[in-house]
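Field log, afternoon session.

UNIT: design team B
ACTIVITY: writing a sequence onto a fixed backbone
BACKBONE:
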């Protein structure tokens, strides 16, 4: 498992999801979140053009413990400007 970390597969997959979300589904906005302090997940979202919007305090209960989450989002026009080679409808 660890040999695939930092190999770029997460960013590549997220870009594919964003591309599908904007071009095929016609969404205006896509958002994602990660447990606060999960630096690799936050960097991946930032690498794909997503912007940090804030902290969701005590957002999820897991194993009797509340966790904060970082919230990220990207809008269609932001994605389009970062990926000009694609033709968007």
């Amino acid at each position: 498992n660890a040999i695939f970390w930092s190999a770029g597969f997460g960013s590549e997959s997220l870009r594919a999801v964003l591309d599908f979300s904007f071009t095929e589904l016609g969404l205006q906005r896509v958002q994602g979140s990660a447990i606060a302090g999960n630096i690799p997940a936050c960097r991946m979202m930032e690498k794909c053009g997503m912007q940090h919007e804030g902290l969701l305090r005590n957002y999820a209960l897991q194993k009797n413990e509340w966790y904060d989450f970082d919230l990220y989002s990207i809008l269609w026009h932001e994605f389009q400007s970062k990926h000009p080679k694609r033709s968007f409808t």
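LOG NOTE: The chain has a mean pLDDT of 89.
NEXT ACTIVITY: expression trials, pending approval
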